[in-house]
Structure formats: C-alpha cells, structure tokens
Amino acid sequence: MSQHIVSALVENRAGTLSRVSGLFSRRGFNIDSLTVGETDDPSISRMTIAIGGGEQQSNEQVLEQIIKQLGKLVDVIAVRELEGGSCLRREIMLVKISADEQNRPAVLEIAGIFRARVVDVSPETITVEATGNVEKLNGLLLLLRPYGILELARTGLVALERGNKILSAGQIMDKKSIP
Asked: Which residues lie below 8 Å from residue 88, measured CB to CB, with a gap of 6+?
C-alpha cells in the first residue's frame, strides 16, 4: 500500500489541528506523519498529512470523501492530495549515536556519506542532523544502528508539488495564472 500525502492550508488558530485530525481518526485512518507550520502569512498554516499502510486505508473512495469533508471545515482554506511522483518530500532527523574513540571515525564517515551534519559531540556520543527523503534517512539509520542509536527525533514529512502548481486560497492554480 503506497503512502498518501494530503496538503492543507488552514487558519492558524486553536482547535484547527484537532478538527482536521479528528476527521481521519473517525474514519479509521491512521496518520503516519503530521506536520504543521506557518506559511509566509502568519494567519495561515500548512498541514502535511501522511497516511499509509493498513487494509482499511487502501479504500481510495473513503480518502476522497475525507478530503472533500476537510475542504468543508471552516478552518480549512484549501486541501489537496499530492500525487506521489509529482511532489517533493523531505524530513529532518536528529540522531544521537554512541561513539567512543574507537568507533567515532566510522560514525563520522557514515554521516558524511549521507551529508548529515554533526551538531553535537561529547566523549561518548555524536549527534547528527540529516535532511532528505524517507528512504535516505532510513538508510542512514540502518548503517548507524550497529553503533547504538541512543535517541532519535524526526520532524515528519513536509511536501510541496513540483513545478507550477500552487495550493492557494481554496484552489489549485498554475503559476502563470497568478496576477
């Protein structure tokens, strides 16, 4: 089952997140990742909701209904499912690895291969920051696991459509149609 990405522009006010996520949970959809942040307009936030896995969640019609219902919520300005191949997906990850004098060079080499940035070093640990698609971050974790992952924090997925498509003010527009 492939992952579905829903992007929504919402009013930046209390209770909006609860109302939006409630629509998914009432229909039995588990949210794999949910990120919310202000846009260039502080009164508007962009929500990126990743949904995937599970037999119930393969029902495309139910997902389509949820997206239509989201569009009817007062706090929702615009909503759209992003097509898999036509959107950019990124995530940020911080990972703290056990790294003594013996394995520190190997951990640093792995981090370098994945273009991860060292953000903290102590005598027993190294903390790196990595940005990229989910596959890249999972690959980094796979190689770091043997050294001992002590802590891990991931932001969740953020996504934008490629090219001229823009999610704005209740409609999807091509850049050339913007005045």
From this structure: 159, 160, 161, 162
pLDDT in tens, 157-174: 899 888 888 887 645 444
* β pairing state of 125-132 and 165-168: unpaired
Assigned CATH for 88-154: 3.30.70.1150
E-strand stretches of the chain: 4-11, 31-38, 44-51, 76-82, 87-98, 117-121, 125-132, 149-154, 158-161, 165-168, 171-174
Residues of the chain with CATH 3.30.70.260: 4-82
CATH fold label, 4-82: Alpha-Beta Plaits (3.30.70)
How many angstroms separate the CA atoms of 110 and 97, rounded? 12
> Among the residues of the chain, which ranges form H helices?
16-26, 60-72, 104-113, 134-144
pTM value is 0.78
Any idea which residue has 């102590």 for tokens?
122
Question: What is the distance between the alpha carbons of residues 166 and 57, in angstroms, rounded to a whole number?
Answer: 27
**Separation between Cα atoms, residue 56 and residue 76, nearest integer Å:** 25
